[in-house]
Write a structure and sequence with these properties.
The complex is a heterodimer. Chain A contains twelve helices and two strands; from the N terminus they run ααααββαααααααα. Chain A is mainly α. Chain A has one domain: Orthogonal Bundle (ABC transporter involved in vitamin B12 uptake, BtuC), CATH 1.10.3470. Chain A has a two-stranded antiparallel ribbon with strand order 1-2. The longest helix of chain A is centred in the N-terminal third of the chain and has 30 residues, at 2-31. The N and C termini of chain A lie far apart (47 Å). Chain B has a single domain (54-323), classed as ABC transporter involved in vitamin B12 uptake, BtuC. Chain B contains 14 helices and four strands. Chain B has a two-stranded antiparallel sheet. A two-stranded antiparallel ribbon of chain B has the order 2-3. The longest helix of chain B is centred in the N-terminal third of the chain and has 30 residues, at 51-80. Classes of the chains: A mainly alpha, B mainly alpha. Chain A binds chain B through residues 34, 36, 82, 85-86, 89-92, 94-96, 98-100, 102-103, 106-107, 109-110, 217, 220-221, 224-225, 228, 259-260, 262-263, 265-266, 269-270, 273-274, 277, 287-288, 290-291, and chain B through 79, 84, 86, 128, 131-132, 134-139, 141-143, 145-147, 149-150, 153-154, 157-158, 259, 263, 266, 270, 274, 297-300, 302-303, 306-307, 309-310, 313-314, 317.
């Protein structure tokens, strides 16, 4: 009974972590820029969807489409207006995106988005009981969407021209430049994709609870932990990192105490960095040379 | 600017003589070189004496500016070794909690608890950060960003060290003027020591790590070990700032890890000029009074710091200090463009 629920909720938790960190790791992998505004974009998508659905009363599908497009544009705008001016100076990239992220999050805090009324509706209500574990449809949907996004990402970077161009840019920027792929164009795309993925993650995960400012910080921390754990530029590593962290969290909170869940990320990062600094599936050289 | 013209920058004679020939010809030139520094040092040292003029409120603002200046100095030291910290609140909070622990649970007076917390805090910070030092660049930034948030959560969740309520009723310091004096003297001392430090042989190694760590590695030196020592040295003023502030307000709690202590020193260092120790101090003394004037805006201030940070990173990456230095030591004039020679 306990084992079964741990297995199931570990899987759900892994899928949640995966959705949260996809956008961040995608942008990082493709453009080499760590987008510290990821948490801000994620939360912005949540509040925007709330506004569209609850205040304007738009139909669900329309609201989702608008949210995803707006965040994708926001991601592209962050690159085009700010990051492009400091590209290549790692420190300034980090500080600039960090500043953007913090301003988004703290602006919402100041505007008073801290009460309990902010929550998104589930796509489908209801729950399913398998053997002895009860699971609601939203959580099942999260697993499905996480899987679909992984497939989409794989198909995008292996089957389409745009994706292949982006992949080429990630693998070797100079060679990609020499065959006529524009670096800024690729980076703009990767920021837009990162923004859109953050919005999808927000739309899927936020209905499970109340929208809270601190989630924005947490998402960034999770994305960081997973990226470090799995090793950079390795999608398999990302998925493996999510599964390890997801199960570790569920096991810790069931067997020890729920509040130690937070310490799992830190412990995982520190242990992995101490034992295998390149991450579980990363190559040492790659990790070290990425600034 | 007129078309066909360009701006030309030329060093003043005094800069060339002082930098390269080491010959200064008159008291006037000595004054030109020493003036700004003496003005800043005297201003800082005399400031606490004018409590009647400024009032206790602005003395406190001066004290906080010194605390932020110490954190900015620490940030700049890390930056000079090639490490970018997004979480100065980590060092600050660790120092603060150590002091609270020593004073409340072990009953040590401020005379012992502050120095002891400074050293123990720096040691602990170094141990925690040590595994990350194998990596360069943004990983260090990511970890330092995460650490204060994690520690805050752990203290909140487990209720150790006073939990959400913190530890209050610590022993008091002799008074406001005393606190301000201590902080001012420490800021000046740390600035001076750090500046001199980077001219020593040991400092050269640290600077080399910032410039090209592969060459340090090739020289047979352990980059990670040197970085660990640098983190320890850089943590000292930050943990001291936490310890002093704790005894000044006689309480330590979760706000010691607040975002404000991370973003203010970072903004101060970027506004002042990254990598310049005096610049960070200057930035702190510009930002903190500015932020006090904006107190009415509440948490919107953090948004304003971020906007300022963004503005400076994109618009004036060299920072105010280097900008002012350039204006002071160079003059500019508009000259016509020369005909292009084929």
């Amino acid at each position: 009974m306990l084992l079964e629920s741990m297995l199931v909720f570990g899987l759900v938790n892994s899928a949640i972590l995966m959705l949260m960190s996809f956008g961040f790791s995608l942008t990082f992998g493709l453009s080499g820029v760590a987008n510290f505004a990821h948490g801000g974009i994620y939360l912005l998508a949540g509040y925007l969807a709330f506004f569209l659905l609850r205040t304007l009363g738009l139909p669900y599908l329309l609201a989702v489409i608008i949210t995803v497009i707006v965040t994708a544009l926001l991601g592209a705008a962050i690159y085009r207006l700010v990051v492009i001016r400091v590209r290549g100076i790692a420190l300034n990239e980090v500080i600039a995106t960090f500043a953007i992220g913090i301003s988004i999050l703290e602006l919402f805090r100041w505007l008073g988005f801290i009460t309990y009324e902010f929550s998104l509706p589930c796509i489908v209500d209801g729950r399913l009981t398998l053997f002895q574990t009860t699971l609601d449809y939203q959580r099942i949907l999260i697993i499905v969407v996480a899987f679909l996004m992984a497939v989409f990402l794989w198909a995008l970077t292996h089957k389409t021209r745009i994706g292949l161009a982006l992949l080429g840019m990630a693998q070797n920027e100079y060679t990609a430049l020499s065959v006529g792929i524009d670096s800024d164009w690729a980076a703009t795309y990767s920021f837009a994709l990162g923004g859109a993925f953050a919005a999808i993650a927000a739309l899927m995960i936020l209905p499970l609870g109340i929208i809270n400012i601190n989630i924005g910080y947490e998402v960034l921390l999770i994305a960081l932990a997973v990226t470090v754990l799995g090793g950079l530029e390795s999608t398999k590593g990302l998925i493996l990192g999510c599964i390890i962290l997801g199960y570790a969290q569920v096991i810790t909170s069931t067997l020890i105490a729920p509040h130690w869940k937070e310490a799992v990320y830190l412990a995982a990062i520190l242990i992995v960095l101490a034992v295998k600094p390149s991450g579980l599936l990363g190559k040492f050289k790659e990790l070290e040379e990425r600034v | 600017m007129k078309a066909g013209h360009r701006k030309e920058r030329i060093d003043r004679g005094i800069k060339v003589r002082a930098d390269e020939i080491f010959a200064i010809s008159s008291y006037r030139e000595i004054l030109y070189l020493m003036g700004p520094r003496l003005l800043a040092i005297m201003g800082l040292l005399l400031f606490p004496l004018f409590r009647d003029v400024t009032g206790a409120y602005w003395q406190t603002v001066g004290f906080i500016a010194c605390i932020i200046a110490l954190l900015a100095l620490s940030w700049n030291f890390l930056f000079s070794v090639g490490l970018v910290s997004l979480g100065q609140a980590f060092f600050f909070g660790v120092g603060a909690y150590f002091t609270g622990y020593f004073n409340h649970f072990l009953g040590l007076g401020p005379l012992f608890s502050i120095p002891l917390a400074t050293v123990c805090g720096a040691v602990l910070c170094t141990i925690v950060i040590f595994p990350v030092l194998r990596l360069r660049g943004i990983y260090f930034a990511l970890i330092t960003f995460a650490l204060p948030l994690f520690l805050m959560r752990i203290i909140e969740a487990t209720g150790y060290l006073g939990g959400t309520e913190g530890i209050s009723g610590l022993q008091r310091l002799p008074g406001l003027t005393f606190s301000v004096y201590v902080s001012v003297v420490v800021v000046l001392a740390v600035t001076f020591i750090y500046l001199r430090f980077f001219d020593t042989d040991y400092g050269l190694v640290l600077r080399a790590i910032h410039d090209n760590d592969m060459s340090v590695l090739a020289g047979g030196l352990s980059v990670q070990w040197y970085k660990a020592q640098a983190v320890f040295i850089a943590a000292l003023p930050a943990t001291f700032a936490g310890a002093l502030m704790t005894h000044h307000y006689r309480i330590v709690g979760m706000p010691a890890f607040a975002m404000e202590y991370s973003i203010l020193p970072l903004t101060a260092a970027v506004v002042g000029g990254t990598g310049t120790f005096a610049g960070g101090v200057l930035g702190a003394f510009i930002l903190v009074p500015f932020s006090e004037m904006l107190r009415a805006f509440g948490t919107l201030r953090i948004v304003m710091y971020s906007a300022l940070l963004l503005l400076f990173v994109v618009g004036l990456p060299e920072g105010i200090y280097r900008f002012a230095q350039r204006k002071y030591f160079q003059f500019e004039r508009i000259v016509p463009l020369e005909e292009e020679k084929q």
